[in-house]
Design brief:
Layout: H1 3-8, E1 17-21, H2 35-42, E2 48-51, H3 53-58, H4 60-63, E3 67-71, E4 73-75, E5 87-89, H5 93-98, E6 103-110, H6 115-132, E7 136-142, H7 153-166, E8 170-173, H8 181-189, E9 195-198, H9 206-218, E10 223-225, H10 228-231, H11 236-249, H12 253-257
Length: about 260
């Protein structure tokens, strides 16, 4: 497939996408997450998945026909006295082709103590991307994951622009803490490639989650890449359907909540 064909595996005819990242097993404990079962249950309302290489192999049959994005790095939250390396790359375009992936995803942390190494690894991945036509979705965040105090409009806007400048096809990023639709529009407008919004830690608040999704779409995001707020939800298929309705049908938060 060429680059556009690969991207089209994630994008519906409206140019939007609902992606489910289930790449968390190397980062946080997910002992009850069965990737094959969750993919089978959510396939009707999910356009593509972000998976580690092992899941891409184990769930190949149920991933058929969906966009497959291979996670090419491992990123770890700070734990105890462990060294915070941020993100370190594990795989590349050849591995993506081996598992039939249509895109690759890697972290880009701006202002991180290991920023130099992370940025070089991202640049190498993008070079491989252009050699193979496997697109890159950069997950662009200031400093690291799970740092809401640092997720300001200014910090996020800088990081998503840097991701675009480095050559990302799509940028995945956070909604600014306590932000508004206009705040996220400033972030989207700072980036000249499409932006999708991530979900972060499980909120436990359906209305808040769907409001964030609606605000992001209204601000110009082309979709979502929400993981834990779906697969840790008591009714994963229902909350995924609600997100799908907002992204693809421009549903209101009120009408989407009825699907949950």
């Amino acid at each position: 497939m060429d680059r556009d064909q690969n991207l089209s595996r994630f994008l519906q005819s409206d140019g939007r996408t609902v992606i489910l990242p289930i790449d968390h097993g190397t980062i946080i404990p997910v002992p009850t997450l069965n990737p094959v079962e969750i993919i089978e249950a959510l396939n009707p309302v999910i356009d593509g998945y972000v998976v580690n290489l092992g899941v891409a192999l184990a769930a190949a049959d149920v991933l058929e026909g969906k966009g497959i994005c291979l996670r090419t790095d491992c990123y770890k939250p700070v734990y105890g006295d462990n060294l915070d390396e941020g993100s370190y790359r594990l795989y590349g375009a050849d591995d993506a082709l081996t598992v039939g992936a249509h895109a690759m995803m890697n972290m880009l942390y701006s202002h991180h103590s290991n920023e130099a190494s992370i940025t070089r690894e991202v640049a190498e991945l993008i070079t491989e991307s252009h050699e193979t036509d496997v697109p890159v979705i950069l997950e662009a965040l200031p400093f690291s994951i799970g740092r809401p105090d640092d997720y300001t409009v200014e910090n996020i806007a800088f990081t998503v622009r840097a991701a675009a400048e480095l050559g990302a096809d799509i940028v995945k990023t956070a909604f600014p803490t306590n932000g508004t639709t206009e705040d996220f529009k400033r972030i989207v407008d700072s980036c000249f490639v499409p932006v999708i919004v991530l979900g972060g830690a499980a909120m436990g608040d359906d209305a808040a989650l769907l409001t964030m999704v609606k605000n992001a779409i209204d601000a110009g995001a082309i979709g979502t890449a929400i993981g834990r707020n779906i697969f840790e939800h008591p009714r994963p298929a229902n909350i995924a359907a609600a997100i799908n309705a907002i992204v693809h049908d421009d549903a209101s938060v009120e009408s989407a909540l009825k699907l949950v």
